[in-house]
């Protein structure tokens, strides 16, 4: 193309001096900036009859083609290279050097094509520098599209798709347009502010159109951006199809979400929960549906959703446990909604139950009016066998946990202690032989004494557990009419407190200040003259 340009007749003489004057003036400003750094140039680049004294480091760090040419030059100090075929000639190369030196210049419709071709020719890719010149050009035209009306913006993007533009590359453009067009919505507070009906309708149309233009590829849009669109859709009361589309997209990328992405306000004042629990439940169900199916699910054969990758289940489990803990303190959260959401968190996704126990404890603390049967239903969400030792020690002393759950916790903890003590002497020689064969016999003898003490504590704990089971059976028996003079049974707290003291000795790092010993002041003894009276 350059050769064809050389064979054409020269333009009018009045145009050439003006262009050369502008080019030389710009080159002079660039050279002045370079020399102001008091660093001598170490490379000379000749482009289209013009010579540019430059610095190697700044060029090779962004231009892969110049890096190859410099590596072929053997001169150690000063290098001279010639690039005769740069698209746009010396004018385009000067803009490229300005970008390499960090000098601001304006990208316009007149120079953007020339600049893009020059960047491609000089191999200014992301491998050389993150955020290289081609990306700056893309950001420029994305900014230009944000000033269009929504109908013109839609037709422009559809035309770009029809001409082979990748949908994935349209993601940043759509994100920038949505952020500018939906500016001013209070989507992070609770409740709706009064808006002008015309402005509200216009933003609703913009949002529904933007959602319809979103790429179908997974990871084309971030979860945080999808969460922002969903908040706006709930705030503006868009169509159900628009909301369900966003919920499905968030479900596919739920493994990348953080807790703030799920804390969507309900935007109501009718006594409902602070956060929109139903929406998050549908998002989680979408994730589980695609996780189970493990196949592509889409609207058509061309534009389809891609299912989430396997291995996100554990990350999603921790995320939902944190979400349950966040919403558990809401006094308007019913037990049915809390349990239904907790049951969706797969047990396979939970390595331990500490997160679920924390959410349950917060819920029981925020809802003290629950009866014993309801508290047992809430505690059934966790597997007591997966609790850590710290959580077991806390649960055994927690007055909000039902006694049946405490029994399970103590049983599994007693079983864990038994396995630990019995497993320490298996698979090797006897302890006596190992003690004689090591010089640190005193330390090993101390370890044996510790195991013996743990064994005694284990036996004592087993007896206490059996007594608690017997007491629990007595409590669960139907009430029997007894004379008023008969002594009432001992309260259940005495057994829990005694076991808590045992656990306190086993786990000295736990705090037992919150456990108050039972006082016997409430027990009364009938006087002697009325002890055998039937009246």
Automatic annotation (TrEMBL):
The keyword RNA-binding does not apply. Residues 139-416 form the NPH3 domain. This is NPH3 domain-containing protein. Transmembrane segments: none annotated. Residues 522-535 have a biased composition (Basic residues). PANTHER family: OS12G0117600 PROTEIN. Pathway: Protein modification; protein ubiquitination. It holds the Pfam family BTB. Residues 422-449, 510-535 are annotated as: Disordered. PROSITE patterns: BTB (PS50097), NPH3 (PS51649). The lineage of its organism: Eukaryota, Viridiplantae, Streptophyta, Embryophyta, Tracheophyta. Residues 41-109 form the BTB domain. Keywords: Ubl conjugation pathway. Belongs to the NPH3 family. It comes from the Eukaryota. InterPro entries: BTB/POZ_dom (IPR000210), NPH3/RPT2-like (IPR043454), NPH3_dom (IPR027356), SKP1/BTB/POZ_sf (IPR011333).
